[in-house]
Amino acid sequence: MGTCAFDDVFPIHYDLTLLTNLGQHKFYGAVEIDLKVNADTSKIVLNVAELTLSDVSVTIVGREEAFVPVSQSIDSIDQRATFIYPCTFTSGSLLKLFIAFEGKLTRSLIGYYEGTWEEAGQEKTYTVTQFEPTAARRAFPCWDEPFYKATFAMSMISASDTVNLFNTPAISEEPYEKADDVLGLLTHATSGEWKITHFEISPLMSTYLVAYATGQFEYLESSFTSPISGKKRPIRVYARPGSIHQARYTLEVTARVIPVYEQLFDIEYPLPKLDTLIIQDMDAYAMENWGLITGRASHYLLDPNASNLQQKQAIVNIQFHEVAHMWFGNITTMEWWTYLYLNEGMGEIFPEWKLDSAFIALHINDAMLLDNKLSSHPVEVDCPDANNINQIFDALSYSKAASVLRMLANHVGVDAFLSGVSKYLKAHLYGNSVTNDLWKGVEGATGFDVSGFMDAYISKVVSPGFPVIRVTESEGVLHIAQARFLQKEITDDSNTIWHVPLNILTIDSDGKPCIDKVVMKERSSSYSVNTDQPFKLNAGSFGYYRVMYSPERFRRIAIEAAKLNSIFDAGDRLGLVQDAFALAAAQMMSLSNALELLTIFKDVRDYYVWSSISTALFNLSTVWWEHTEIIDLLNDLRRFLFKPIVSQIGYEYSADEDPDVSLLRTCAISNASHAKDEEVVHELRRRFEQYQETRDQNLIPEELQGPIYTSAVRFGGEEEYLAIQRIVDDPRTPTEQLAAIGAMCSVDDPKLVVSTIEYMTTKARDQDVPHFVLELMKNPKIKREYVEHFKKNYDGVSNRSGIIEYYYAAAAYNILLQRLFSPLTTKKDFEETKAFFEDGKDTSKYALTVLQSLDAIKENMVYIENSTDDLISWLQNWKRSQ
């Protein structure tokens, strides 16, 4: 939080006027800020970055005299401007600070920036904001920290043929001429007609939630009726004219979710409207600006004629998350970025209440893969330097936070948990909060010691990580011990003891399943269980921990779980697969025992189980990617597992089929084609060839665009590659473009490899670069070549399109580095990567990512060293048995 002179005054209200000149690629503005003086001072300090300031003055409310600073300075490192005045402002007095400013509209994807789209062969430019976490200061002078909440009034001046959007509804709009221009902003305008749009004053909010945009947008409109007050409010989705028809599903989802959250939290949505603006150029997938959500087209648009279930799920998940922020983060805001998870973890948990299998597949594994490293960090993480906040927008702040909150909700009961959440929100309406505030709310509703239960999973004063529960058996007794989950060779002296909800699932005397929700609070303990009957810890996989049984017990649980009427559900099957392969990677059990589970589950037809099996096999292929014999055997196993599913359910999708069947079909075809199954590859290539001849879109369902395009390129030639490149250049939908990018990156031909890298470097949109890198690093023919290309062109890659500051400031660079270096596997890779980043580079803004990437390389090295012989032996024996 701010210190010293930064805290001497506190902003109460901002009155912003902004002129956007798209032709000049500049913006000009003026802001009058109402301030309350907290301590006697002659100094005003606030945040500014990349702005030119002028006409700075301050008046004391009730007096006419305006004071100008006797000196002013801007610290470009701390991004603060300091104004020193010739008088002392006394504590308790009220001030009005006036500042005129101007800035450049760049393609940086942060602050107030510009983007483009093509319409009828013409390039159209629009502008939009992305302020989280600390980029409002790039758009207007402000106190740019979440604690400094204020109200905002906005007047936007723009070309008359544009649409202006802000957090609140417009209250008037009229032509703007020189006679109206008391601020002199039109002196910066080019010729043409201009207009001014005035907006309603916002509620109290943090600067990172302020949002505005200008462009030739179109919209779809609906409404929702509050179940609390009966008020009807409008909902709109804006997009470019050529894609607005693909935004209908987002509109429908938004209208459905707001009333649900109102009922869950017993708090009415407080703004007069909710807009969603879907744009092409965005670093994040979406941003929860209050009243004006912004989202990337690839995650928000859906062909209305397609039945793409995966994209529908993606839209539901992301919009549920963003709308949840209207309460978590917007009404009640974390005091400082240390408590980021209070926004993001709560936002992640609620979309999945009714989709436990989806939650386990999407969140728990991702969180634990990062949390099982010594370079992990607590969920509640100290972040004193605002410039480095982007490093903590990771799977721990999102997925781990959501996972442990889900664990808490399951333990105390979902209804009681939600009652506690409502108490928490109501106690901090329009205010700020810390961890203990949430615990107090849930404790008040449940009487449960939430702090004692949760601290080891969340607190910044406790070591990071999570427990592994070791289970051994004697007659009628389970002996259970906990320790931090780390690779076998790594030691940890933290001595953390977690409160672990064991959720022991057994069969009672009547033959019915029952769950003992006992909480283990000791290093080790024993529990009486009939070990002759099926049992399992962590029933439903609600707990944030791994469970290690003996190999025989793992096998017996898997056999029971694979039965049609098993007492174990899909969450149990998912957790079993994830635990087994995580334990194998950490050398706590043999990889061969983990692989045995896959053959036991071969007749199960549950999509999320197969999704986890797919992930497990993909992860093995990414570790042993340079071992040709192992890759060939893994492909044999993939074909054995997934081809029968393709044969059973075929290639055709139906709008009325079971969603699980639809998702399973896509998973099975993708895996079979990746494993080079001849029949599947032939069918996919046939469809692509016929599509090229007939343009019959029914040949390529949206769900199969990825495997069809990839098969066309992998097993085709330059002609197919160029056809896919044309799709990247001019896709029907954003999801089709992503599928085509993946295909471009799957090439084997060295000449086409160079073409793909050159395309990414010179033609791809900035936010698509991390996706290119992800796909390139899946291709064993390209991995090392691209890593070397990156290192040799480090300055050029970082400074791509002149946006070095964007890459260093945004989370995108952390993602890019992680995707680039984590798949490496040798001691030489480790030493060269370490030396590369130690060679005079300023890694302060991504130091944590470097440590995590180095840890990942070491994990791969140890995995290969300890498990290669076991893996080859099992695969060879399995193949001989077929």
UniProtKB/TrEMBL annotation:
Question: What does the record give as EC number?
Answer: 3.4.11.-
**Which Gene Ontology terms cover its molecular function?**
metalloaminopeptidase activity; peptide binding; zinc ion binding
The feature of type site (Transition state stabilizer) is located at Y398
Q: Where is the active site?
A: E322
Tell me the leader sequence span: none
Q: Which residues bind Zn(2+)?
A: H321, H325, E344
The cofactor(s) it depends on are: Zn(2+)
Record key words, sorted? Aminopeptidase, Hydrolase, Metal-binding, Metalloprotease, Protease, Zinc
List, for all copies, the residue spans of the domain called ERAP1-like C-terminal: 535-858
Domain Peptidase M1 membrane alanine aminopeptidase, first and last residues per copy:
249-457
- Tell me which residues make up the Aminopeptidase N-like N-terminal domain: 11-209
One GO BP annotation is: peptide catabolic process
InterPro entries per UniProt: Aminopeptidase_N-like_N, Aminopeptidase_N-like_N_sf, ERAP1-like_C_dom, M1_APN-typ, Peptidase_M1, Peptidase_M1_aminopeptidases, Peptidase_M1_dom, Peptidase_M4/M1_CTD_sf
GO CC term (a single one): membrane
Please name the Pfam families in this protein's record. ERAP1_C, Peptidase_M1, Peptidase_M1_N
Q: What is the cofactor note? A: Binds 1 zinc ion per subunit.
| EC primary class | hydrolase
Question: Hey, which family's this protein in?
Answer: Belongs to the peptidase M1 family.
Q: Which PANTHER family match?
A: PROTEASE M1 ZINC METALLOPROTEASE (PTHR11533), PUROMYCIN-SENSITIVE AMINOPEPTIDASE-RELATED (PTHR11533:SF174)
What name does this protein carry?
A: Aminopeptidase
